[in-house]
Amino acid sequence: MSQIFQTAKGVHDILPEDHEFHTFIKKVIRHRGRQAGFRRISTPIFEYTDVFVRSIGEGSDIVTKEMYTFEDKKGRSLTLKPEGTAGVVRSYIQNGMNQWPQPVLLYYFEPHFRYDRPQKGRYRQFWQFGFEIIGESDPALDAQLIQLANAIHKDLGIAHIFELQLNTIGTKESRKDYVGTLQDYYAGKERSLCEDCKVRINKNILRLLDCKEEDCRILAELAPPMKDYLDKESREFHDELKEYLDEIGVKYVENPKLVRGLDYYSKTVFEFWDKNEGAQNAVGGGGRYDGLIEIMGGQSTPAVGYAAGVDRLIANMKREKVRVPSKDELHVFVAQLGREAKKKCLVLIDRLRNSGIKTMGALGKGSINIQLKLADKFKVTYTVLIGLTEVREGTAIIRNMKKGTQEKVKMEKVVDRLIKLIGEQNLDKYTPGEVSTQ
Questions:
Q1: Residue spans of beta strands (DSSP E) within 135-248
Q2: What is the distance between the alpha carbons of residues 177 and 169, in angstroms, rounded to a whole number?
Q3: Would you call 251 helix, strand, or coil by DSSP?
Q4: How do residues 164-200 score in pLDDT, each as one tens digit?
């Protein structure tokens, strides 16, 4: 017996039902993004490894444990992208976007890859969308980005289950003294740390503050507060951001332990946590990364971004029993009997589809009864029947599958009659030749 293949660990098929959620989320992202002036960008699935090492940081969990890295045939190190911001920043620099009107507003909706421990809502190939605002430093932009994320959650029907966690981690320069203070605080306490934090303490000690392990959390609660070490500008920037959030009615929870896991963040950091499950079911987060473009070889350029996991959003939408509109339902099933009827059927199916009527045709050799049972399985409202008599008379029978009624219609009138029955508002029309060549 041949081997039955399965997906690799940590990846999954996106079946038609979940694609309905993907399509709906993508539509919401596109609509909200366009409203706010964002334009879509797509960066390659893989980049040179240094793009991520330099941007994310050598001591981050992503770089040390989670990247899918390989060599090409010339020995160059490449990595499947584990997050979106690094590639967008590389593109900003490479394509001279600093010459565009600033700030540059970009969004993406793409697959990413991390060698992570698979669990609910977390996969090794996962979809993320993100928004980046590059070229301006203003807490009002941070507030607008947070408001945009909040609006998307409302559109998806799940805003009520999340709360915004907000913090400021200041500038890289202002954190130097605090890092030294943390090193003094954790000295001699290494035994109480989890295995990951025993590594982080020498590479990225700030990550110890938001570790989820119980012993690490207890130590973090007793650690010196970061806010006491931040520069005046960062504190004022954060206070102004909170004023804007208050003004637009976005509620938040101040979380002084929130630092996020990427080295490039500065000042504002935020995440959306589940009100009941906390950070274990965070759907997205972001923050300001004012120094990243310079680190990547560009000019000093301020920026702020946000990214969210599509798989986790879908899981929460299902949990909340959110129903999304589907455009996959068929309008019409065309059944036929005999070769001559099949010829007429092929022409009619093409005319129906070009008129915006979603149509399936039974082109096998089954009896009319078998085809009608198939039409039932596809849950169509109308079935068109074409047999030997109909071919001879130049007619077709339109059957209402829900009411059990039917009518005979001239073949040339079938399309117009079905358009009237289905209703113009339900048609999925496509007009060829819409693309301008001017």
A1: 162-168
A2: 12
A3: coil
A4: 999 999 988 888 888 888 888 888 888 888 988 888 8
- Residues 183 and 138: their CA atoms lie apart, in Å, by 32
Length of the chain: 438
Contact (CB, 8 A) for 310 and 127: yes
Structural domains of the chain sorted by starting position, each given as residue range(s) with its CATH number in brackets: 16-171+231-319 (3.30.930.10), 332-424 (3.40.50.800)
Instruction: Provide the pLDDT confidence category of residue 211 given band limits of 50, 70 and 90.
Output: confident
- E strands, 54-199, are 69-71, 77-80, 104-113, 125-134, 162-168
The H or E element that residue 399 is part of is strand 395-400
Q: How far apart are CA 418 and CA 387, in angstroms?
A: 19
Tell me the β-bridge partners of 273.
163
> Band of the pLDDT at 427, cuts 50, 70, 90?
low
- Compute the distance between CA of residue 371 and CA of residue 360 in angstroms, rounded to an integer: 11
**Joined tokens for residue 8:** 């690799």
Full-model pTM? 0.86
Are 168 and 242 in contact, with CB atoms under 8 Å apart? Answer: no
Which residue in 193, 172, 185, 92 sits closest to 134, CA to CA?
Answer: 92
Task: Tell me if residue 95 falls in helix, strand or coil.
Answer: coil
Cis peptide before 103 (omega within 30 of 0): yes
Distance between CA atoms of 316 and 157, rounded to whole angstroms? Answer: 9
**Element (H or E) spanning 409, and its range?**
strand 405-410
| For the chain, counts of helices (H) and of strands (E) | 15, 16
Structure-block tokens of residue 411? 């073949």
Which candidate, 137, 132, 105, places its Cα nearest to that of 241?
137
